Amino acid sequence: MVVRGYLSGHSYRIYNSGQRNLCGNILPENMNENDKFKSPIITPATKAEKGLHDEDISPKSIIEQNIINKDDYEYLHEISLELFKRGTEFASNNGLILVDTKYEFGYDSNGVITLIDEIGVDGDFIESQAFAYLAVRSILKLPISFPETTGCSEPCSGGKIFLK
């Protein structure tokens, strides 16, 4: 789930090409590059093969293609916005702006939705994975564990955060 607070990067390229529908979000006319959205938008993407860019997909297509069910999509939508809100607050408190970020979710072997990767990476203008730990813990009030296989005892790049 990509959450965007500003018309920047990919969203600007789409907008600049004349398209105003980005993953089901109708973008207003007369926006300029790096303008802030009234409220953050979610632009879901499907995972591409290694080396290729992820592909945009609408929530309707996600549900129609049975990638996830409607209830799980709505849950991920809500959680993604909450994570972005916290990430934005954390960034602001540290003199940074969180323009956009991608939260990658999946199901673990027990069918539990899991936040697995791409949490506030450098390209999002956040320089530490620590905000992810704080944001997830604060928002969901759920324990967070780091699998021994990652070699991490604290948030680190490539580590998985399990929502229990």
Q: What is the CATH topology classification name? A: D-amino Acid Aminotransferase, Chain A, domain 1
Mean pLDDT: 77
Task: Please name the fourth-level CATH homologous superfamily.
Answer: ATP-grasp fold, B domain
- Main sheet characteristics: 3 strands, antiparallel
Number of folding domains? 1
Strand order within the widest beta sheet: 4-1-7
N→C terminal distance:
19 Å
Number of helices: 4
- Could you name the CATH class? Alpha Beta
CATH architecture: 2-Layer Sandwich
Strand content: 15-25%
SS-derived structural category: alpha+beta
Radius of gyration: 16 Å
Helix percentage: 25-40%
List keywords for this structure.
alpha+beta, D-amino Acid Aminotransferase, Chain A, domain 1, three-stranded antiparallel sheet, two-stranded antiparallel ribbon, 4 helices, 29% helix
Structure description:
A 3-stranded antiparallel sheet has the order 4-1-7, with helices on one face. Strands 2-3 form a two-stranded antiparallel sheet. It is globular, with a radius of gyration of 16 Å. The chain contains 4 helices and 11 strands, in the order βαβββββααβββαββ. It has 164 residues and is an alpha+beta fold. The model is unreliable at 122-131 and 143-164 (pLDDT under 50). It has one domain (2-163): D-amino Acid Aminotransferase, Chain A, domain 1 (2-Layer Sandwich). 29% of the residues lie in helices and 23% in strands.
